[in-house]
TrEMBL record:
Belongs to the protein kinase superfamily. RIO-type Ser/Thr kinase family. GO terms for molecular function: ATP binding; metal ion binding; protein serine/threonine kinase activity. It comes from Caldiarchaeum subterraneum. Its EC number is 2.7.11.1. This is non-specific serine/threonine protein kinase. Keywords: ATP-binding, Kinase, Magnesium, Metal-binding, Nucleotide-binding, Serine/threonine-protein kinase, Transferase. Pfam families: RIO1. Residues 57-265 form the Protein kinase domain.
Length: 265
């Protein structure tokens, strides 16, 4: 390669890098400031990539926060409202507490020791579980795409305001019974058609939409129904929900609820 070719190549690379930096600067203006304050550089680069490739158009205010993740309101490339779930990469005990869900999952045979890569796997796992549940007809947020520790899915709510969680609502007696029956139907469909059990089932992982339509959320901890811990997770989840409905004023038989879920409602 001649000196001229080398100089030209060096100039082209320099221009490419400058152009890329300029595009990232433009996209940075489309991010909520709080996002940049919380997340590390690699996470931000993942979000920038989604913006630059047109999959995302905007990432706006935070919708909900937790110890392990934050969910932001966003707009995808087609202009639809989306939920942008970003897993934090600074929770020291995250990997240890989640191994029991991943170890017996045949879809993920290699479990990374690296903490960041484990977070990526966990995000990928939630995307896979949501896809499996959605395809089985279970009412869950439709998964759209996932990259590293960022998961983008259908936004359950309107105008940036999410639907309330089950524990945040108060129901009339007749509504409560309708809600309970719907919960049983959803869990039965997840179990029989989706082949899964929600590993962290509670009133905090069910959303109430328009017309009292329910949605199951936070499926990263869902496991196959033949998983060694599946029945333990199912029994525990039913116990938690039984207590919730009983306290709300509806008599619930946990054993009967389990039977209905297993046989399909």
């Amino acid at each position: 390669m001649s000196q001229w070719d080398k100089a030209e190549r060096k100039l082209s690379l320099k221009e490419y890098r400058k152009d890329r930096e300029q595009r990232y600067l433009v996209k940075r203006s489309e991010l909520d400031e709080s996002l940049e304050e919380v997340f590390d550089g690699q996470t931000l680069m993942t979000v920038y990539d989604m913006l630059n490739t047109g999959r995302l158009r905007k990432v706006m205010g935070v919708v909900s926060t937790g110890k392990e993740s934050r969910i932001y309101h966003g707009v995808d490339g087609s202009g639809l409202e989306v939920a942008v779930k970003i897993y934090l990469v600074s929770t020291a005990e995250f990997r240890r507490n989640r191994l029991q869900y991943v170890v017996n999952d045949p879809r993920f045979k290699k479990i990374p020791r690296n903490f960041r890569r484990f977070i990526y796997l966990w995000s990928e796992r939630e995307y896979a579980n949501l896809t499996q549940a959605f395809n089985a007809g279970v009412p869950v947020p439709k998964p759209l795409f996932q990259q590293n520790n960022v998961l983008v899915m259908e936004f359950l709510g309107e105008n940036g305001v999410r639907y309330p969680l089950l524990h945040e609502e108060k129901f009339e007696p007749d509504e409560l019974e309708t809600i309970f029956n719907q919960v049983v139907e959803i869990l039965a469909k997840l179990y029989n058609d989706g082949g899964m059990v929600h590993g962290d089932l509670s009133q905090y992982n069910i959303m109430v939409g328009k017309g009292l339509k329910l949605y199951l959320i936070d499926l990263a901890q869902a496991v196959a129904k033949d998983h060694p811990m599946a029945e333990t997770f199912l029994t525990h989840g039913v116990s938690v929900l039984s207590s919730f409905f009983t306290k709300a004023g509806l008599r619930v038989d946990g054993e009967e609820m389990l039977k209905k879920i297993r046989r399909g409602g």
